[in-house]
Amino acid sequence: MNAVQATVIAAGSPKLQAELSKHARTTHQAFAKGPGRWQVSWYDGAREIGQVIVDERTRRAVEVWTGPRAAWQMARGIPGAFGRKVNSPVVWIPLMLLFFLPFFDWRRPFRLLHLDLLVLLSFSLSHVFFNRGDIDASVPLAYPPLVYLLARMLHVAYVRRRAPPQPLRLLVPVKWLVLGLIFLVGFRVGLNVTNSNVIDVGYSGVIGADRLTHGQALYGQFPSDDPSGDTYGPVNYYAYVPFELALPWSGTWDDLPAAHAAALLFDAATLLALFWVGRRLRRGREGTLLGVVLAYAWVSYPYTLFVSNSNANDALVALLVVLAFGALTAPRARGAMLALASAAKFAPLVLFPLFASYDRRRLRDAGLFGLAFAAATIIVFVPVLPHGGISTIWDRTIGFQLGRDSPFSIWGQHPSLDWPQTVAKVGLVFLVCMVAIVPKVKTPRRLAALAAATLIALQITMTHWFYLYIVWWFPLAMTALLLSETLLDGRSDSELNRSPRARGSARSHSPGGDDRSLPDIPSPTDPPQPSRTAPASASETAE
After folding, report:
1. pLDDT in tens, 79-105
2. Integer Cα distance of 155 and 157 in angstroms
3. Total-model pTM
4. Which residue ranges form the domains of the chain, and what is each CATH number?
5. Helix, strand, coil % in the chain, rounded to nearest 5
């Protein structure tokens, strides 16, 4: 069979003819697609609108793809294309139950947290249609959860509760959560090693790390099987360097053990960072409990496993954002961490005004934050500057992202919605500016909620959105939701920035009893409570 014969067979497909009838002028190209197969593609300009695979032996078209599925293999519903076994109901549904049930309070079945958790899990409905290749249904179904969570985060940040919050009661003892956490960590590692795949994102990280270790240019010269793999910031590729050195790249898109190792470390480090954040937000036993709950929420949420089993780099973004949030009282560390997050994937840039204005009463802190952000940005970008300078990096990264077409958003599927998308972008700019100004002084709970809201708003406006991006804001949203359940307004910034000895003298008491509760911490305006414990050491109270 030759190219002309393959084209004649492909052109006879009724499905292809129906698609071609929608276009006034098209071109086509035929080429060999492995042993015994031909691929014939039709184009409207530079856009692929039809693809047919012809089998030489049977002389028949065995695959016919039209519309966005022609150019986007990820739109075809190929089983296991992302995460393999994680998409199985045998894995996904138990994870949903493990995520939701520990937080269910049968005494208050209509509590708002129950709805919040169900909405976080409701992305699964969209995911079902995505796995079937029905992106016309999967894409719009992703927006109601995003819009709800945006509104919910703004509600947590700006609406003061009238009734005193009640302690968060878990359905199971915290010891059970610890055991579940250990089991789920082992399960994630085992599943990654035995039944996972490396998508293009992880492949790009390994290629970039290989280029860095061999002194080659990072931007503009990626191989033909991953031509746009240099679309990320340099920190993404730096993060893969230790793994590529230990498990060198073979030069092909094989199993890529370095990508597996990197994804597992990003995942585990985010878990530990969340435990650390819990210890930072609460003192003593309450901090340990909150840290365990946040870490458990991470390992039990299905989409964090989806990222890990796809061996993507999105957990790296989550890790760096969580570290920036945990460094609230250290403006230089906060600025450096946010700079690293922004130089991995550029989305966290929208958090700059919010994190810079954490406490607008101390302009010196804002200055230190900005200097640290700028210094860290310069340090990571200067070594990888190409001959074309900043313009080349812009064209390969942010410029490419802004100019790409994608069927994975309502904006990409319906170009007529250009003006609503513009309105949404204006709203995003307004939100980014507003959260930096109001409120003037932000508690940790409010900052977590506003940061999550800002990232969610950004994702709503994006032309290309995917389920992997959920983990960018999930840790912040979960932190805000848990704190809103147990704190009316959190501790003030003045209390967070007291010396360890001063904070130790104001240490709250634990009400005791059932360890399934995360007890409340009194507001600084509450009358002092008698201490039932020995004075805390500086190491216990250090923020």
Report:
1. 999 999 999 999 999 999 999 999 998
2. 5
3. 0.88
4. 3-71 (3.10.450.40), 84-486 (no CATH)
5. 60, 5, 30
